[in-house]
What we know:
Distance between the termini: 69 Å
Structural class: alpha/beta
CATH architecture of the largest domain: Alpha-Beta Barrel
Strand content: 15-25%
Largest sheet: 8 strands, parallel, barrel
Number of strands: 17
CATH class of the largest domain: Alpha Beta
CATH topology of the largest domain: TIM Barrel
Order of helices and strands: HEHEEHHEHHEEEHEHEHEEEEHEEEHEH
Number of domains: 2
Amino acid sequence: MPRNSRLDWIGMMRRFRFLITVSFCFYALLSTAQENVAAKHPLVVGYFRGDSMRRQFFLKNLLSQGATSILDQINYSQGNVAGSQCVIADPNADLNYTFSADDSVDGTADTPQMALRGNFHQLQELKRLYPHIKILISLEGTADVFVEAAQPVNRHSFVASCIQRFIKGNFADGIEAPGLFDGIDVDWEYPEEADKFNFIALLGEFRRQLNAAGPNLLLTVAMGDNRIAYQHLDMKAVALYVNEVGVMNYDYSGPWSKRTGLIAPLYSSPGDLEKGGDVDSTIRGYKNAGVPASKMLLGLPFYAYSWSQVSEANHGLFQLGEPSRNDSPYNYIVSIQSKLTTYRDPKSMAPWLFDGSTFWTFDDEMSIGAKLKYASQQALGGVMIWELSGDTPDGKLLKTISEQIRSHDDDVEREAP
């Protein structure tokens, strides 16, 4: 064989072996990812904000709300990304804050001598008392920090730092608590067209290192409600790597617009200029993009938006006004509801308040009940709440969710052979 032919043949064989190796690793990783099976009943996942103590809402409040019997999973918001490494977002709130007995999950006061205090210790107490609740760390940050961390040169070390920090529990010098977190929630808002390959590769690296770190560790993602957030992504590949796709089915209307609207309508309403700006359109879009219904979580807002100086036409809905820049929790809506008139869209069951000038959009027990029925009809994996401090002290919205889930479980039992 001529030398050039031999070299061509050797080169071809090397490329062939390389492709075989890459393919084997890729499909081995996918097969591992596909071992994640859907839950037997709809999941209830709630985000808990690390800064909730500033609003006098503590993890202990979940007990008085009845949340511990309803929640399957808490996503702790947040873990930060800085310098392509996972870092503690707020060391004082997460590690050092000294809780009093009144504010502590188990009724025992923290002491300054304890190595681990703060919210992370409260999560430890919660997990000890309610071991069925999974606890995930939600990684959040601006899009640019994720773009940098997902680069091929940084990807492995970035994920390794997240495993060390949060899964192995090396929170700080002398502060360790392995096993506190049961997985990682990636909240990259949002990967652009140029990031699509690195986004998938990052999720693949997370899946590989989580599998190596221990059994049954969860990987989840939070995804946007607008088609722009996912239309350029390979959502089939995303779904292969993750256990849950939490769809942020809220902020369909908000303070970025002078026109009032509904924060999270189940279906589009007559007069709404935003085509596809509703929960049903979003869920169908993700299904069409390749996400199995069983891995999708329907997002529920426990907060409200408002506008002032709104026209009286159509009871304030889809009218011009001055938006408030801040959201308000649902429990505030309950406190003012008697002073305003409640209206409701008959198609989506979405409520709003209006007094002739001020307009409020939010979800309540009736609209959330309709969404739970919808999630069941669509065989979705469950629901995801942003965020838990917004509910009333007695957990009105959580109880509505619990009743619907219980009804679903009863229906499943009756249908079982």
